[in-house]
Each structure stands twice: as C-alpha cells, then as structure tokens.
C-alpha cells in the first residue's frame, strides 16, 4: 500500500519541503453540522511526487529536527528537506552514505542526525557538532577519558562513521541510537549504554567538574546504580545485571528502560522530569535513578520532551511527569512541575468503557435491591472473567507515546492519534478556537491551591493555546497511523488508507473520558426557560411519585424516613458530574420539600401540600400537576390553565430588555401549584380551600 504522509504546523524553514498546503475536516461526530477545518501539508498531485512513490520504495519512518525533516525508506535511502545549520533545502534531497550497508534507523537532535546501519556494525553522524554531540573527535583506544585537547567539529556536511561505536570498541553491535538537543545515546545488543555530547546538567551520566569542560567528545559507558530502587526491585535484580533495552533523550535529560520494565532517568531535574521528588538545579542528576513510583507496573514504551517524560504500561495506560505548564501532562490541570508520575486517565479506554458498562447495568436495577453482597458478586465475576470482560477485549489501547518540546502524542491500537500540550502554531493537528473563549491559566496560582476542576483548552502568559486533555485527531480518521515525526513547531503523521473490510474492530474509536462527559452534558443540558415551557405543555413537573404498589404517606414521620432512604441520584455518577451541575437535578431536603434546580447557579424550593382522601383505605399522595383528571373535564378550568400558560410563555419569550422580572421561577411554580390545587379541590371542604388561599392573603 502507498504510504500517506500528512503534516501539521508552520512551514517556517521549508521543513515541509515541496508538500502542498491543504485543509482537512475535523469534526468530533459525523452528524455534526458545523464543519471545522485544520490546516495541513500533503504530497498531492499539485506537488511533485516524492521519490518513495516513484521508485516503489515505500516510506517506513520520519524524523524531525527543529527546522528540517529526514525520511527513511525500506531500502535504506535517506531524504532531507528544510533548514539545518543555515543550509536550506526546499526540495527533497538524497543523503548518501559511503558504506556498503543500508540504514535501518534514524535519530535526530536539534541540528544533527544519527544513522544506524544494518546489523549495528556502524553508526554515522552529521550536522552541527559544537557540543561534541556527533562523537567524531579523534579516537585513541589508549585514552579513554572524557576530555580531549582537540576541539569538536562545528559542522559536518556528510555522514561520517563514529569510530567510538564500532563493535570491536564497545564489545557488541549497536541495537539502537537516540539524540537529544545537544547529546547522543547508543545502546548495544548486550544492554549497555554509551553517551556523549553536552553534559551541563549531567545528562551524559557524568558529574561535571571545574577542571573538565561540560562536554564529552567520545562515547562513554554509563553505569547504572540500583541502590535507590525499591526493595522489590533490589531483590529481583542486581546492579551488575541491569540490562537496558530502550533509550530516549530529551532536551537535557535521558531516560532508559530495562528488560524488567523498570524506568531510569538522569540529567536536568528543574521541573521534576526525572521523577525524583528532590529538586536539583545545579549539576542535575548525574547517576541514573530508578523511578520508584512506577516500580509495581511494567513499562513498555518511554519518551522524553523538553521538560516532561511519558511512560506507557503493558496494559495501555499512560503516565506523565515533569513540567506541565502547557498542559503536556494531559491531566487537565496546569502544573509548574509535578515530579510524581500521574495517570492520563482520559487515555485509559478499557477503564472508561468498563465504568460506563457497569453504570448502565446498575441503572437497570432497583437501587434498593443493590446490596453489598450483590456488589461483591459483580466484582468477583469481573475478576474471574465474565462475559462483560470478554466484551472489552476489542477496546482500543495505546501502543506508543511520543513527547517533544512541550507537546505529547499517543497512537492507539486502531491507528488513531491523540494529542495534547502546546498548540500555538497548530502543531498538534487540532483546530484553534477563538482566543476570547479560552480560560487563562497561571501555573503559579494553581500551585497555591489544590486544583478542583479539569480544564480542556487554556492559554497562559507565554502560550496562546494549550490543550490540557488528550483529544483525538479526527482529521486523520481516514488513515491508519503507524509513525509520528515530531518537532517543537510541526509534526508528520505516516500511515495508510483504512480499508473497509467489514471488520468492526477497525472502526472502533477509543473515546476519551472528556469526550464521554461532554456528550453526556450536551444530552442533559437544556435552556432554563425551555425546560419550564416543556413542563407546562406536558404537565409533568419534577415531583417524586411514590410507587403505586407500595404507597406511602410522606406527611407522616414514617413516610419521610422512607423517602430519605431512597437515593435520588446514582451514587456512582455523583462524582462524575460537573461542579456547575447537570440540568433538572432533583433531591429532597431534610424538611421534605422538593428542590428544583432551575439553572446551574440558583435553586428554587417549593413546598408541596399533600392531602388525604377519606374514601381510600390507605393513605396516598395527590400529585401536584396542573390539575387532576376530573378538573380537566371542566371548561372553565381548561381555559384558565391555558391562559396562564400563554401569559407565562409570552413573558419568557419576550426580549431580555422587556422582562422586568414579573414572574420569577419561584413565583411561577407557586402559582401553578396553587392553580392546580384550587382546580382539584373545588369539591373539598372549605377548610382546605382556606388553607390554600392563606398564602394569597398574606401576599
């Protein structure tokens, strides 16, 4: 299949090359009438076809520096466009390597690139090297110190072999390479890590000294210390037996993952990006430290941005820690720093679907019949593997995470992309809303108090648009994304067209927690005056009618106690509601009066008068609707009720300038109840009528 490449962001330095600018539709739902477009870049018929489409050599990977892009094909060919160290390439340019080996992996830093050759027999580097990040300083096998009298090359035009990473030097072929802003990493097949480049914050796992310069010109072996790890990790593995299987590099810190799924961080820790509670500003963390907060979970993927770190567990859960002032931690809260790993709950699709399924089952049952024993049985069934658990097998899961700059990305098992963080130039692939509608968030103010409400889109003093909760890129719903190339101001998404083969699993979309809550809010929220008019027309007020099979007199003490025991809302949903409140919330207060929330800010209380019927053998409650069934047969009552409805409707539908608060919601409800009571009690004794007319005389 022909790969499809889509880019988002700004083309400041020709980083999109000859790609043509286009617009994609971004709608959360297919039935949405409003069409929102997102600016993108694609290789279309208007632009010249890329070489991988002409030569039948498909594109397999894409990597980005701060201002350029590198493309890698299946046959090992490398193409570049953009600007690197002042050299501008507006069209795709082939990068040739003078070795009889093909390239199998690329890693890009700020202004340089690393290429791992087939079999791990060689690593080539080119680009800017003023901090020694290329590792091309003259190598001497007898001199294994970190400093050297010779200065590193400032720029290398052509890929050059890094002699310090040859198999006979490091003891094994290279299995992976990684690049930060000004430092580089290499991993051997034996699980050993070598680093070189800038070491100002200890990101090369060496303690900077006054005598030695803060640069490491040649690859140096990193020693992992497991003394600070938890007891469970210490007992299961020895310090000498730590074997690393994945490495990533951030702006000024480094992250490694061992065979046991344990995460290690070192380097700059100004914002807690190393996952260590102690804040070290000078020198950073010079020894790889185990992230103890994640000791009980197995990590399968890691990524590092400028000041934050992401980790993915085997179950598809995403954790983030470090700086969160642009919302890049994805928790909905704006943090200046958060050194403790925090779960990105919006991407835990299995838990979201399981919770929605469990709540729907509880609503079908009577809350009074839901005992502790039945709840325990449900949990035991779920633990032993019931049909509901089998239904969650096809639920999408996150399979990879990417952090770059102050932005974060995740790809699900169904090929959908989720993004959050800084979106100043549209680099997240999400539409930018009107700036006037965004909420201002100051990380300093948030630190002074505990955040209580999650926010979706905000802006700060140095950013015009921050996405604090993960959002799906619906503009790419027609693609199955496999790779992401991310920079601070632009991204590339590589994938293939989705095939409509009738497989329902391919059409499943992982719904975030915010998306589920937003759909629920839109479904239940109504305009206040529309709710009142709807109640008047249907003669259905928010009154609680006892069960006909077990009638209860609420005027008695026993009846009040029984109503107090009946839950008026689902206890499982009480924590999920927004602080502003959903519309039409109903509850009984301690005095037995009904509380109606006419809007999210004010509450209107209405006393309900209950009357006994002498003809019944048991006590019952008369419902306070517009009128009883008998009174509706009388023409005068019908005309009186319709005239009242017309008057109220005319007042509510009049322009805001003419409403002079003639009828407040409280007065409207009291008037309707009084009218209904008079109509239904004309045949009652005079004492009841006098009792109802008493409030009228007081007014």
UniProtKB/TrEMBL annotation:
<feature type="compositionally biased region" description="Polar residues">
    <location>
        <begin position="638"/>
        <end position="656"/>
    </location>
</feature>
<feature type="repeat" description="RCC1">
    <location>
        <begin position="415"/>
        <end position="472"/>
    </location>
</feature>
<feature type="region of interest" description="Disordered">
    <location>
        <begin position="538"/>
        <end position="587"/>
    </location>
</feature>
<feature type="repeat" description="RCC1">
    <location>
        <begin position="316"/>
        <end position="365"/>
    </location>
</feature>
<dbReference type="Pfam" id="PF25390">
    <property type="entry name" value="WD40_RLD"/>
</dbReference>
<feature type="compositionally biased region" description="Polar residues">
    <location>
        <begin position="538"/>
        <end position="572"/>
    </location>
</feature>
<dbReference type="Pfam" id="PF00415">
    <property type="entry name" value="RCC1"/>
</dbReference>
<dbReference type="InterPro" id="IPR009091">
    <property type="entry name" value="RCC1/BLIP-II"/>
</dbReference>
<feature type="region of interest" description="Disordered">
    <location>
        <begin position="611"/>
        <end position="664"/>
    </location>
</feature>
<dbReference type="InterPro" id="IPR058923">
    <property type="entry name" value="RCC1-like_dom"/>
</dbReference>
<dbReference type="InterPro" id="IPR000408">
    <property type="entry name" value="Reg_chr_condens"/>
</dbReference>
<dbReference type="InterPro" id="IPR051210">
    <property type="entry name" value="Ub_ligase/GEF_domain"/>
</dbReference>
<feature type="compositionally biased region" description="Basic and acidic residues">
    <location>
        <begin position="574"/>
        <end position="587"/>
    </location>
</feature>
<feature type="compositionally biased region" description="Polar residues">
    <location>
        <begin position="620"/>
        <end position="630"/>
    </location>
</feature>
<feature type="repeat" description="RCC1">
    <location>
        <begin position="261"/>
        <end position="315"/>
    </location>
</feature>
<feature type="region of interest" description="Disordered">
    <location>
        <begin position="359"/>
        <end position="388"/>
    </location>
</feature>
<protein>
    <submittedName>
        <fullName>RCC1/BLIP-II protein</fullName>
    </submittedName>
</protein>
<feature type="repeat" description="RCC1">
    <location>
        <begin position="191"/>
        <end position="260"/>
    </location>
</feature>
<feature type="compositionally biased region" description="Polar residues">
    <location>
        <begin position="367"/>
        <end position="388"/>
    </location>
</feature>
<feature type="region of interest" description="Disordered">
    <location>
        <begin position="679"/>
        <end position="699"/>
    </location>
</feature>
<feature type="domain" description="RCC1-like">
    <location>
        <begin position="30"/>
        <end position="356"/>
    </location>
</feature>
<feature type="repeat" description="RCC1">
    <location>
        <begin position="121"/>
        <end position="190"/>
    </location>
</feature>
<keyword id="KW-0677">Repeat</keyword>
């Amino acid at each position: 299949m022909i790969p499809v490449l889509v880019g988002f962001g700004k083309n400041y330095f020709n980083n999109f090359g000859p790609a043509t600018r286009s617009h994609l539709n971004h709608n959360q739902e297919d039935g949405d009438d409003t069409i929102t477009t997102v600016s993108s870049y694609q290789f279309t018929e208007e632009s010249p076809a890329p070489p991988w489409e002409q030569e039948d050599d498909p594109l397999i990977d894409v990597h980005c520096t701060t201002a350029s892009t590198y493309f890698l094909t299946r046959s090992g060919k490398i193409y570049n466009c953009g600007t690197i160290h002042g050299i501008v390439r507006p069209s795709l340019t082939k990068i040739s390597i003078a070795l009889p080996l093909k390239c199998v992996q690329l890693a890009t830093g700020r202004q340089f690139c690393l290429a791992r050759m087939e079999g791990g027999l060689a690593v080539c580097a080119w680009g800017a090297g003023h901090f020694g990040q290329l590792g091309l300083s003259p190598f001497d096998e007898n001199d294994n110190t970190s400093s050297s009298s010779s200065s590193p090359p400032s720029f290398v035009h052509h890929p050059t072999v890094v002699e310090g990473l040859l198999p006979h030097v490091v003891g094994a072929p290279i299995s992976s390479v990684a690049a930060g802003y000004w430092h580089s990493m290499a991993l051997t097949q034996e699980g050993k890590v070598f680093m070189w480049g800038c070491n100002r914050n200890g990101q090369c796992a060496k303690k900077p000294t006054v005598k030695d310069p803060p640069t490491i010109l040649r690859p140096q072996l990193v020693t992992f210390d497991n003394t600070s790890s938890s007891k469970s990790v210490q007992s299961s593995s020895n310090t000498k037996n730590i074997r690393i299987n994945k490495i990533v590099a951030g702006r000024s810190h480094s992250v490694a993952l061992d065979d046991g799924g344990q995460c290690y961080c070192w380097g700059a820790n100004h914002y807690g990006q190393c996952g260590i509670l102690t804040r070290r500003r000078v020198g950073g963390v010079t020894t790889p430290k185990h992230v103890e907060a994640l000791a009980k979970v197995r990590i399968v993927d890691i990524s590092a941005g400028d000041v934050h770190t992401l980790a993915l567990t085997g179950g598809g859960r995403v954790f983030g820690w470090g700086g969160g002032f642009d919302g890049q931690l994805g928790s909905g809260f704006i943090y200046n720093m958060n050194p403790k790993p925090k779960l990105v709950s919006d991407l835990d699709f299995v838990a979201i679907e399981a919770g929605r399924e469990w709540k729907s089952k509880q609503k079908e049952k009577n809350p009074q019949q839901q005992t502790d024993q039945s709840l325990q049985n449900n949990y035991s069934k779920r633990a032993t593997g019931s049909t509901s658990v089998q239904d969650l097998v096809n639920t999408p899961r996150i399979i990879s995470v990417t952090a770059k700059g102050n932005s974060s990305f995740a790809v699900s098992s169904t090929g959908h992309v989720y993004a959050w963080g800084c979106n100043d130039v549209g680099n997240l692939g999400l539409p930018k809303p009107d700036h006037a509608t965004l909420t201002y968030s100051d990380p300093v103010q948030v630190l002074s108090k505990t955040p209580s409400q999650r926010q979706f889109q905000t802006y700060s003093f140095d950013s015009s648009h921050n996405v604090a909760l993960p959002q799906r890129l619906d503009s790419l719903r027609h693609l199955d994304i496999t790779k992401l190339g991310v920079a601070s101001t632009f991204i590339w998404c590589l994938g293939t067209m989705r095939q409509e083969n009738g497989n329902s699993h391919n059409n499943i979309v992982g719904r975030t927690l915010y998306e589920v809550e937003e759909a629920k809010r839109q479904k239940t929220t109504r305009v206040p005056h529309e709710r009142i008019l709807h109640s008047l027309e249907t003669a259905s007020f928010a009154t609680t009618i006892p069960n006909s099979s077990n009638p209860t007199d609420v005027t008695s003490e026993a009846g009040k106690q029984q109503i107090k025991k009946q839950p008026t809302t689902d206890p499982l949903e009480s924590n999920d509601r927004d602080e502003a409140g959903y519309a039409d919330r109903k509850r009984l207060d301690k005095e037995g009066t009904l509380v109606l929330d006419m809007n999210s800010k004010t509450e209107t209380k209405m006393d309900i008068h209950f009357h006994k019927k002498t003809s019944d053998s048991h006590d019952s409650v008369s419902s306070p609707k517009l009128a009883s069934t008998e009174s509706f047969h009388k023409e005068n009552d019908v005309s009186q009720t319709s005239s009242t409805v017309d008057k109220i409707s005319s007042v509510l539908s009049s322009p805001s300038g003419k409403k002079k608060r003639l009828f407040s919601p409280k007065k409207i409800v009291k008037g309707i109840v009084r009218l209904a009571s008079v109509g239904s009690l004309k045949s009652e004794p005079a004492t009841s009528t006098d009792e109802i007319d008493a409030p009228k005389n007081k007014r």
